[in-house]
Amino acid sequence: GLLSRLQPSAPTVRTLSSSKSFSQNIPSCLWKLGRLNHVAIAVPDLEKAQSLYKDVLGAQVSETVALPEHGVYTVFVELGNTKLELLHPLGEKSPIASFLQKNKTGGMHHICIEVDDINAAMTELKKKKIRILSEEPKIGAHGKPVIFLHPKDCHGVLVELEQA
Fold first, then answer.
1. Could you tell me where the DSSP H helices lie in 2-94?
2. Which of 49, 60, 71, 87 is most enclosed, with most CB atoms within 10 A?
3. Cross-strand bridge partners of residue 42
4. Distance from C-alpha of 96 to C-alpha of 88, rounded to nearest angstrom
5. pLDDT tens, position by position, 115-157
6. CATH classification (class only), 33-163
């Protein structure tokens, strides 16, 4: 009667079918994605950014390192489960300089994900028509091979893959 019409109905909850594993929908690869290594942030004033994370937020902050091959100065901010990479232009042809021209106050530049086999990743991603921004991996800030995937092929995000 009236009582059953006044009681709210239980919400419908959707769950993944237990008969099919979620991973069955992912094609097998010769390489695997690993953990998020860092999120890179372009900053117009590296000293101010370092001070924010170190002095205001209390994070452990690395020394500034110049990476001329990439046209950047880098600083790493240690977090419990990952890092932030602060990027500042090094030289007039720096990709960070052009980013900061469009984004005067800075902002997120890229994400970096570890892979177990960067060469296999490159081969397979090229077959899948994902553009890679260099012909060969370059040595990144951690001394390991890295590649960058075109943001237009990654839903607007510049993705860096780093050999684990």
1. 2-6, 46-51
2. 87
3. 87, 107
4. 6
5. 999 999 999 999 999 999 999 999 999 999 999 999 999 999 9
6. alpha beta
Radius of gyration of the chain (CA): 21
Q: Is pTM, for the whole model, over 0.85?
A: no
Q: Three-state DSSP class for 25?
A: helix
Residue type, 107: G
Residue where the block lists tokens 């205001």: 56
The encoded tokens of residue 155 equal: 């839903």
Determine the Cα angle at 107 with ends 132 and 83, to 5°.
Answer: 75
The Cα–Cα gap between 72 and 141 comes to 10
Give the tens place of pLDDT for each residue, 10-45. Answer: 555 555 544 445 555 666 778 999 999 999 999 999
- Tell me the domain boundaries of the chain: 33-163
For tokens 């091959």, name the residue. Answer: 69
Q: Which residue is associated with the tokens 């959707």?
A: 14
What percentage of the chain carries pLDDT values higher than 70?
A: 83
Residue in the structure block whose two tokens are 């000293």: 47
